[in-house]
Amino acid sequence: MSRRIAGLLFLAGLVALSCIAAGCTDIPGATPAGSGPPVDDPGNVTAGNTQFAFDLYRQLAADPQYTDQNLFFSPYSISSALAITYEGARGTTADEIRTVLHLPANDTLRREGFSAIDAGLNHGDANYTLRTANALWAEKTHQFLPEYIDVAEHWYSANATNLDFIDNPKGSRQTINQWVEGETEDRIRDLLPPGSVDTLTRLVITNAVYFKGTWVNQFDPNKTKEAEFRVGPNETVRVPMMHRTDEDAIYGYNETDTLQVLEMPYAHESGSELAMLVLLPVGDNLAAAEEVLAAEKIADLRQSLVKQQVRVSFPKFTLENGYSLPETLAAMGMPTAFTDAADLSGMDGTKDLFISGVVHKAFVDVNEEGTEAAAATGVVMGITSARPDTTPVFRADHPFIFLITEKDSGTILFVGRVVNPVGS
């Protein structure tokens, strides 16, 4: 698939899964585009999530391993899991995480912001399914600070479950993966791959997001036909292309010299209004779409849309993407959390913890009826090494020497060697 479709799919995921983060809904606590605090307001969780989304997209798009490959992820899922991680970070570790995620430094603003967004996501609507969930998975023998557990549960609805990572890491990993599958209608499987959880794991933080909605203007399956899709200047592939060209095909639309912008809304009733915003370059250069990936520019584009009849042809597609993000996040500016220098003492009162892994998986299916999308993130915390057991073990099961001394003077009264305790 081409870079063009990669950009389109990113925007689909951003709007469908994280529309709230982009400020395009009426969720309580979220900021509608073009109103409220400026996007660079450090107290604006919504603006921070949006900036992180575009920063992460650019980081992944510039990574050679993803050259000419599709990208799809949920920035809000990643941001949520790392925000809970941030609550336990201190010093340089906290500063770096806050900077990369563009989190408000003020505890109240940050926590109330995420709590309001989550409440809106889970508000419910008769015409679509949209929900998010957080969870903590803690090693049962490790002592975590009650105040950290309380913050995670109260502000992020991340209830803590004790697992046996030390003696049963495989079973613990399977338990977490089963939770993710349940929260995503089985669309995200095996979030934590083999080896990601081991005997040194002490905490896993998970987030899951699920969305399934139908178009306001659904496509007629009988009109879906195979068509060519350009993946390069001299290369095409055949794809099932959906068509909506009738007089009721009313969409928000605008175009510039370099870009066509289309907003395809999802049906809703009392819940949040969601839509897929598509940025289509006039030519084959995806840079025309990537150049507008900034909060102010997206807000301006959305405000410029005019509802009108549009003859729409749009491909059906299904994507499944997985990412291991430590190197990506470190390159974005938070390397310390992944090293022995990490300070996550707000979690357990020690500096033994560090982030051993950040994994993310995302799924999206776009068809005539609508869109189904899911994503999950796992942040794995381990200790740098097994903490030494300070309780001594003395097992005299081999030859030894012993002394009998007078303690006050230190006089050695007897010396012995035991080679065979039952001999003479």
UniProtKB/TrEMBL annotation:
Keyword Ion transport annotated: no
Stored InterPro entries: Serpin_CS, Serpin_dom, Serpin_fam, Serpin_sf, Serpin_sf_1, Serpin_sf_2
All residue ranges annotated as the Serpin domain in the record: 54-421
GO molecular function terms listed in the Swiss-Prot or TrEMBL record: serine-type endopeptidase inhibitor activity
Source taxon at top rank: Archaea
Record keyword Coiled coil present: no
SUPFAM superfamilies with a match to the protein in the record: Serpins
PROSITE patterns (UniProt xref): PROKAR_LIPOPROTEIN, SERPIN
Signal peptide span: none
Family: Belongs to the serpin family.
Name of the featured protein: Serine protease inhibitor
Organism: Methanoculleus bourgensis (strain ATCC 43281 / DSM 3045 / OCM 15 / MS2) (Methanogenium bourgense)
